[in-house]
């Protein structure tokens, strides 16, 4: 489903602060795979996801989704395939709008822009059903402004907003890093449920090695813009948590 072919990216090329962020990346991710990306800061994990989503143009190589090249497509054009959740709980929602209005915007993300009917009863019901997956009681507070919610609640809503359109690729960049332990645990549990139920292809960047060990069916370690380990489901299942810690010693 996703292919990186000889993808490279250099930031500040030729300058003292030059960074070889991605170095000749070759990677294939099949539909419905849940891939964990680990590595030290600056290893290229987030850069890899940003290259896929179109945050910048790659210097060389090609990226494909369903055999269609993304090289000439802007980030908004790629959004028909890709949904994202970021580290900052405040990044994925509009605080001054209600929960319902945020979901309406999310549902239109991949559709042609134009005049549309606002919110129907059937849409409200769909939103309530999906928010109910979070088991937070927010499905009964659709008119509440998102800015009045906690960071954990906002991040959880962002998670569900990702399945309001037809995107099938879900990128999560340290989604629980800014949350308290209880909220973080709940978010990851719900994320796994949604990924499985809606048959999403997922890439998760995390520094939490316990999460890296518990979740996903494939794990990739990056270093200095390169993939240095790539373990499939069978190999990952054989890993012990101490094995992962040893990767960073």
Structure description:
- The protein is α/β, with parallel strands linked by helices and 249 residues long.
- The protein has a domain of 173 residues: 3-Layer(aba) Sandwich (Rossmann fold).
- Helices cover 31% and strands 24% of the residues.
- It has nine helices and ten strands.
- The protein has a six-stranded mixed sheet with strand order 6-7-8-3-9-10, with helices on both faces. The protein has a four-stranded antiparallel sheet with strand order 2-1-4-5, with helices on one face.
- Strand 4 and strand 5 form a beta hairpin.
- Helix 5 runs parallel beside helix 6.
- The chain is globular.
- The protein starts with a strand and ends with a helix.
Characteristics of this structure?
249 residues, alpha/beta, Rossmann fold, six-stranded mixed sheet, four-stranded antiparallel sheet, globular
Brief summary:
The protein is of the alpha/beta class and 249 residues long. The protein is built from nine helices and ten strands. It has a domain at 2-91 and 164-246: 3-Layer(aba) Sandwich (Rossmann fold), CATH 3.40.50.
